[in-house]
Amino acid sequence: MKVYWKNHPKGLNLILQTDEMEEINLGGVRSMPSGIQAIAVTRGYDPGRAIKGLTSLESGQEFVAQFEPWREFTNTPLSIEPDIVE
Questions:
Q1: Which positions ≥6 away from 27 have C-beta within 8 Å?
Q2: Contacts of 12 (CB under 8 A, 6+ apart)
Q3: Whole-prediction pTM value?
């Protein structure tokens, strides 16, 4: 299993790739006219896992990563790969 950022036309998606090569979207960061938006997935309703009005994609990445959203899908300790995938 691995976790990595993947380019998206409007920003980045955080992806969990399983051992079976399945990609699970863990959240994302988007550049919108009103600023940067970020969201980390959760299995329940948690509005605290989304934010608007950030000033950079990097701050959005930090926001999403702080929740370690891969823990919703695995108990395996993981860290985010350093390179962004196209």
A1: 13, 14, 38, 39, 40, 41, 49, 64, 67, 69
A2: 5, 6, 28, 29, 57, 60, 61, 84
A3: 0.93
Q: 39 has which bridge partners?
A: 28, 50
68 contact partners, CB below 8 Å, separation of at least 6: none
CA 5 to CA 57: how far, in whole Å? 11
Query: Per-residue pLDDT for the chain (86 aa), expressed as one digit of tens each?
Result: 999 999 999 999 999 999 999 999 999 999 999 899 999 999 888 889 999 999 999 999 999 999 999 999 998 899 999 999 99
Helices (H) and strands (E) in the chain, counts: 1, 5
The stretches of the chain forming alpha helices (DSSP H) are 57-66
Largest CA distance in the chain: 38
